[in-house]
Amino acid sequence: MKITMGAVVMGGTSVLYPTGAWRDQRPVIDHEACKSCDTCRDVCPDSSVFVQEDVYYIDYDFCKGCGLCAYECPVDAIAMILEEK
Amino acid sequence: MGAVKVVEGSQAVAEAVRACRPQVISAYPISPQTHIVETLAQMVADGELGSRYLRVESEFSAASVLAGASCAGSRCYTASSSQGLLLMTEVLYASAGMRLPFVITGVNRSISAPITIQVDQQDTISLRDTGLIQLYAESSQEAYDMHLAAFKIAEDPGIMLPVMVCMDGWILTHSYERIDFLDQQDVDRFLPPFKPANLMEVEDPKTWGSYSEENVLMEFRYALQKSMDYAQERIPQVMGDLASYTGRDYGGLIEAYATDDAEVILVAMGSVTGTLKDAVDQMREAGRKVGLIKIRCFRPFPARQIWEAVRGAKVVAVLDANVSLGSEGALGLDLKAKLCGRPDGPLVVDFIAGLGGREINPLVAEDIVDQALEAAQAPTPPWAPIWVGLDASIVA
Amino acid sequence: MNASAQENRMELFAPGHRACHGCGMALSVRHILKATGNQVAVVTPTGCLETFSSPYGYSPWRVPWIHHLFENGPSVASGVAAALDAQGRGDVRVVAIGGDGSTFDIGFAALSGMFERDDDVLYICVDNGAYMNTGGQRSGATPTYASTTTDPVGKLRPGKLQHKKDLPAIVAAHGAAYVATASVAYRKDLQKKVKRAMEFHGARYLQIDTPCPSVWGFPSDHTLEVGRLGVASGLVPLFEMEYGNVTKVRKIKPITVDKYLRGQKRFRHLFADEQGAELVAKLQQMADANIAKYGLSSQSGGQ
C-alpha cells in the first residue's frame, strides 16, 4: 500500500488490529447470573463488550483480558479463565 | 498594476501578507521582525484584516498555532528572528513531516552568545534540515514578491511544506524602499484560497501525526525529499506566474549576474547581493572578469542551476553569513559537496563574511576576489574557510 | 460479527488501540468522547495516549485527531480553534487531551498561554502521575512519596519529596470559566463534567485521575478500585470550579490513606518500616487538608 502524504490516516482503522491476541485470560459471561446492568460494557477500556437483545457478549477480537469487567461485575457473573492454545 | 509607495521593509511584508488573506496569524515579539507583526496587529485592530490574530507566549507556540491552523485547513502566517527561530526548530521539523504548509518570515539576525541584535544568517541556516523551503530576498521589493509566491509554493498539492522567506534584519526590515504593490484583485487571481486535500471534517475524520516504525519512516523522509525535488521545478513556475502580474522577474532559484565569461564568481544570499552587484559592476569596469550568483532559494538547493552558471569559471568565492563551527559555512559546504567530482569545475573557496553585521562593501568584495584567485593559484585548496574582515589580533 | 459488536467497534474511540491491559486513560478517553459526541476535533500531545492510539495505519479515533509534539498541545489546539472559527465552523469544538507530563511540565507555558488568551478549547489532562510512556519517570503530577524511576526509593530518599503541582488551582487563577477534576472510577460524573465544560466557551480545564496498572503497580482489573480508593481517601479530591469558585464537590466517606496506598507498588516502601509509617501519616495530613479545604466529607456538611 502506498504511504499517504504526511502520514495522514483514516480514523477508526484500529479495528484492523485485533488486540485479542494479547489476551492470556478470557472473560466468560454467565448469562444466567447476568442482570444486564451494563457495568461490564461501561468499564471496558477496549470497547469489547457488546449487547444484543439485552444479552451481553465479549468481543474476543479485541478483548485484551484485563479483567476489569469481571472485577467490577456486581453479581460476579463474569469469570476469568486462562486462555489455552 | 497597483500602488507605488515608499514604505519600511516590514510594512511591505505586512502588506504582502495582508493581500494573501491569511485566516490565522500568530505573533511573538523579537527584534528585528517585530514591526511586521505590529503592522499586522494594527491592521486587525482597525478591521482592515480579518485574520484571527493570536498573541502567543513563545515562538514555540507561534509556530505550533500555525501547525494546528494549517492542519485545520487555514492559510496562516508568523514572523520571527534569531533565537525565536531556533525555538521553533522542533515545530518546523514536525510540521514539514506532517506536510503542513504555512509561511514564516525569517528576519535574519545573529545567534547568541554573545547576544546581539546584529545581522547574519546563522539563524535561518540553522533550520536548514527541517524540511522548510527557504527563500532569501535581496530587497524589500523582492521580499514583498516572495511572500506572495511563498503561500502558493507552500500550498501546492505536490509540495505542502512550510516556506520561510528570509530577509536581513534592519537592513531590509527597517529601511525605506519604493515598493510596487500588486492590486488585490491580481493577488486574488494569482493566489486562490487554500484547499488542502485532507480536510478536517467530522464526517470523514482523519488522524494526523501518526506514530511510525522502521517499515515506513524512511519512505516518509524520501517522500519529503521528492517533494523538495518537485519544488525545484515548481518554484520557478510560481515565480514566473507572479512575474506575469508584477512585471518583475528575478530569475528562478538563482539569479546569475554577469557570470557568462566570469573567471571569479561570488556566491551569496540576502541583501549583501545588492552590494555585490555594485562591486561586480565596479570590477567589470576595471576589466576584471567577475560575476555573482545570488541564491534565491537555499532549500531546496539549486545545485544544477548553480553548476550551469559556474562551470566555466576558475574559482567560486562563497560568502557565508554563517558558520558550521568546526567545519565551514553552510553554503560553501553545499557547493563543494554538489560540485565535487564534476569534470573541469571551478575551485570553491569558502569565506565567512558578515557575521554579526560585519560590513561587506565593494572594497571587501574585491579583497575576497583577490583572495579567491590566490587560493586558486595555490598548489592545494585551503582546508579552512577564510574569515573576512577579521581582527585576529584581538583573539586570544 | 453481529450488528451490535459492529456498533461497539464504531465507537468514537474504537477498539484496536494499543493501551496496556486495564488502562485507565483509554477508558477515560472512551467516555470523554461519549460525552462530547462527534462534533469535536481532538489534539493530543505526545505521551501514552498518543503512542497507543496512533500507530501509522491503525487509528482508533473516529473524530479528527492531531498529534504534533510533546510541549505544544495547547497551542496546536488554539490554532485549530482559530482556524475553525475563521472558517465559520465554530460548531466543531476543540478538545485537547494530554497526559500529565505534557500538561504539568513540558507544555505548561503553552497551557498558561492558552488560558491567558482564553482560546475556545477544553483542555483535558488524563493524569496518571508520571511519564508512563517512557517507563514511569517522575513528573510534576507525581504524588508525594511515590517511587518513580527517576526519583526512586533509595537509602536516602523515600521517592518524591515534593507536592503534586496543584494545576487546577493554577489554571483557575488564569480566570478560567470552568475547572474540574474527575476520576475514571466515576464515569457518569466524568461525562457530566465534560458536558458541563462544553457549555462554556473559552479555555476550560478538566483533570482526570487515570490509574495506571503497569506503573503504579497493581493488577489490571483493579484500575477502578484504585481510583475509587484514591477519591475516598481525600488524596484525589473531585470538584468543580466556575470562574475561580468551587461550585461542587464529590462527597466522600473518608477512608484512611493506607487503604489506597497499600495496593500500589509505587507506595510499597511506605509499609516496610516505621519511617514509612511516619510518611503515611504525612500523607494522611495531606488528605485531611484536602477534605477540610474542599469540604469533601459527607459527615461534615461542607460546601
Describe this structure as you would to a colleague:
The complex is a heterotrimer of chains A (85), B (396) and C (303). With 85 residues, chain A is of the alpha+beta class. Helix content of chain A is 12%, strand content 24%. Chain A has two helices and five strands. Chain A is elongated, with a radius of gyration of 16 Å. Chain A starts with 8 loop residues before the first strand and ends with a strand. With 396 residues, chain B is of the alpha/beta class. Chain B has two domains: 4-246, Rossmann fold, CATH 3.40.50.970; 254-394, 3-Layer(aba) Sandwich (Rossmann fold). Chain B has helices spanning 9-19, 34-45, 59-71, 82-87, 89-97, 122-125, 140-155, 184-190, 217-246, 272-285, 303-310, 330-339, 362-377; strands at residues 4-8, 24-27, 52-55, 76-81, 103-108, 133-136, 163-168, 176-180, 206-208, 254-257, 264-268, 290-295, 297-299, 315-320, 347-352, 386-387. Chain C has one domain (3-294): Rossmann fold (3-Layer(aba) Sandwich), CATH 3.40.50. Chain C is 39% helix and 14% strand. Chain C is built from twelve helices and eight strands. Chain C has an eight-stranded mixed beta sheet, sandwiched between helices. In chain C, helix 3 (48-52) links the parallel strand 1 and strand 2. In chain C, helix 2 (24-36) packs across helix 8 (187-199) and helix 4 (73-86) packs parallel to helix 6 (108-117). Chains B and C meet through strand 3, helix 3, helix 5 and strand 9 of B and strand 1, strand 2, helix 4 and helix 6 of C. Strand 1 of chain A pairs antiparallel with strand 9 (206-208) of chain B.
Count of discrete alpha- or pi-helical segments spanning 4 or more residues of chain A: 2
Q: How are the strands ordered across the major sheet of chain B? A: 3-2-4-5-7-6-13
CATH topology of chain A: Alpha-Beta Plaits
Q: Which class do the helix and strand fractions of chain B yield?
A: alpha/beta
Fill in the keyword field for this structure:
heterotrimer, A: 85 residues, alpha+beta, Alpha-Beta Plaits, two-stranded antiparallel ribbon, 2 helices, 12% helix, 24% strand, C: 303 residues, alpha/beta, Rossmann fold, eight-stranded mixed sheet, 14% strand
